[in-house]
User: Which sequence fits this backbone?
């Protein structure tokens, strides 16, 4: 009976600092009282209060300017929670799907970073993988290279100052949403690289003014069946990530 009450959907998982957790604490305290246990908590009660670190959250000051066009936070772009706080400005380099698979006997030899210099610059990569599910990274062990975590870590290893991940084409407006801030929280190590997710529509419009066709660049990769990375002379990015980790009462 107790487990059923505590595990009920009404407790919403009993997350730290939530109403479900407080209700659960009060429930347990009430059972202690019914059992006649001696209270040794705060103010002669059964509970002892303390603070715990909460999840990191975005605060005022986040900014992304792509090729001179300032994008709207939440609608057109959003940092990943793994991203370092701080500001940077640098040149932009298009690095295809941001995949490098050149090590091991089963390696495909695909290298989006071959022939381009990203050291100290911001890399622009497409989300997903070339050829979709039927491509070399759409299924099996190769899928790991298409993961956001892998793209960020590879950009870090290549010396990029930051990373922008853009939704690929074709994409309908209804499906061109940016990921939640906490999208990369679950499992695995990820580099603390300033990184953000950008909608396809926003990136394409901003870069069109800089004479770079994002759809044509992706089409070139698909047509060649191989990388088509290139530097974007004169195209700069300004990125500021501002977040804060607040304490939660428990």
Assistant:
């Amino acid at each position: 009976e107790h487990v059923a009450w505590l595990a009920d959907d009404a407790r919403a998982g009993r997350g730290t600092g939530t109403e479900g957790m407080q209700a659960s604490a009060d429930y347990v305290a009430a059972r202690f009282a019914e059992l006649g246990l001696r209270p040794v908590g705060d103010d002669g009660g059964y509970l002892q209060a303390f603070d715990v670190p909460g999840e990191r959250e975005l605060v005022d000051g986040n900014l992304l300017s792509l090729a001179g066009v300032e994008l709207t936070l939440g609608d057109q772009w959003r940092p990943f929670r793994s991203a370092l706080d701080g500001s940077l400005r640098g040149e932009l380099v298009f690095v295809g799907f941001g995949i490098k698979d050149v090590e091991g006997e089963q390696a495909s030899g695909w290298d989006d970073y071959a022939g381009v210099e990203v050291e100290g610059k911001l890399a622009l990569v497409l989300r997903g993988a070339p050829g979709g599910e039927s491509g070399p990274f759409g299924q099996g062990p190769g899928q790991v290279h298409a993961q956001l975590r892998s793209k960020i870590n590879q950009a870090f290893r290549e010396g990029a100052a930051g990373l922008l991940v853009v939704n690929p084409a074709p994409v309908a407006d209804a499906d061109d949403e940016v990921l939640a801030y906490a999208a990369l929280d679950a499992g695995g190590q990820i580099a603390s690289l300033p990184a953000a997710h950008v909608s396809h529509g926003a990136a394409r419009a901003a870069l069109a003014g800089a004479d770079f066709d994002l759809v044509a660049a992706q089409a070139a990769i698909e047509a060649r069946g191989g990388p088509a990375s290139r530097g974007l002379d004169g195209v700069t990015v300004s990125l500021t990530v501002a977040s804060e980790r607040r304490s939660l009462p428990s």
